């Protein structure tokens, strides 16, 4: 089972050559699912959401998505107050925290955004408990994934301020309840880090860069993550856009030992 994790495409700032290369990659590799981790648009405008929807429909793969902070209006204060997710819901449906389940997979979407915060994310006690209970009911063979926008671990000190409020409580509860992989984005910097939960159980944070936007960071080009799962083992791959080849190439691989 091959799963594609995209985050921060920021439609409205997307690069046409990179977008075309991603389309070719999907057509060649045919992932079973695309997991889209927020900041789908740059300014939450209706035309940007429509461009994102059209792009994803053209990939002809199932998609599960959650919003990012850029998917809430910034300058349209009336919309931010009265209907902060209105344009998002028109493009991606009413559910802000979707879930998807099969015999081998459980993906739980978490909305880490809040309209009262400009940039920072937050995980509430109610969200943490809801997800904990759902993870605790997972079947042993399922790869258990939480998909959200804001990160829970950082590799650079300045990114500590970008971690979701409540992340420590979430990590302890979710990894202890069976989380295998937490997927996030927001800071346009890809990496893989271990997560430690209750009773010493271990999971993994897999962080995504920006899939399509010119807003790359730290010398890392546009990138996305791939999870390969065979029912027992999971490998996380990072694919970077290589301009000379005009294609995405596999840059890194991480074996993710699963606690079972």
Automatic annotation (TrEMBL):
The keyword Cell membrane does not apply. This is Metallophosphoesterase. The keyword Iron applies. SUPFAM superfamilies: Metallo-dependent phosphatases (SSF56300). Belongs to the cyclic nucleotide phosphodiesterase class-III family. It holds the Pfam family Metallophos. The lineage of its organism: Bacteria, Pseudomonadati, Pseudomonadota, Gammaproteobacteria, Oceanospirillales. Keywords: Hydrolase, Iron, Metal-binding. Residues 1-189 form the Calcineurin-like phosphoesterase domain. It comes from Alcanivorax quisquiliarum.
